[in-house]
């Protein structure tokens, strides 16, 4: 259920995601493993993001991290960096976390974290440093659980750095109509169509951009994510 729910959300089934999380929570109350509760909290964090309840998401993230770092399982530091990026970007304070993200990405060597650091540095106002990081960290697209969201992060980087948006648009197009869900819903970043709309604008194709942005707004309405609707409508 903790794996099926995020897949359902990725395909736009927010109700199915909520049902699976509720079922997993009921089952988790009868399990004793130290990693059960933090996994549930991480998905609650993603669900709060989906609804735009950012303060609640931040609080749940902190609870999950405190519990999860006490186990021997991988993932606590990744989730911490993922959430730092997400909350700082939403609040317009990436400059406060960009250096820490870059240092952590250097240590952890994950393409996803390195690309997030590049986006953070570029959007914080230092594209020169972001390009230096790009040269230091050759671009890779591993075929793993990060692939479907990493393509979107690469698109964000291209937009922030003024790179050719056409390549990123073509890379992202197969995901139109879906939701950006990181892993097992540790973060929910909205609609692929919103990113595609921004790329189409950068390609100077306003009709195509409007098509994607209208699709993003419709999907936001359908899944009950008002902030996604507002983001699409503001670009329209």
How would you portray this structure in words?
- The chain has 236 residues and is mainly α.
- Helix 5 (76-91) packs antiparallel against helix 6.
- A two-stranded antiparallel sheet has the order 1-2.
- It is built from 13 helices and two strands.
- The longest helix has 18 residues, at 206-223.
- The N and C termini lie far apart (36 Å).
- 70% of the residues lie in helices and 4% in strands.
Concise summary:
The chain is mainly α and 236 residues long. Helix content is 70%, strand content 4%. Strand 1 and strand 2 form a beta hairpin.
Characteristics of this structure?
236 residues; mainly alpha; 13 helices
The succession of helices and strands, N to C, reads HHHHHHHHHHEEHHH
Q: Tell me the major beta sheet.
A: 2 strands, antiparallel
How would you describe the shape? Answer: globular
Roughly what is the average pLDDT, rounded to an integer? 94
Strand order of the largest sheet: 1-2
Low-confidence stretches: none
Quickly give the structural class: mainly alpha
* Total beta strands: 2
Could you tell me the strand content as a percent range? under 5%
The amount of helix comes to 55-70%
* Distinct helical segment count: 13
Gyration radius, to the nearest Å?
A: 17 Å
Distance between the termini: 36 Å
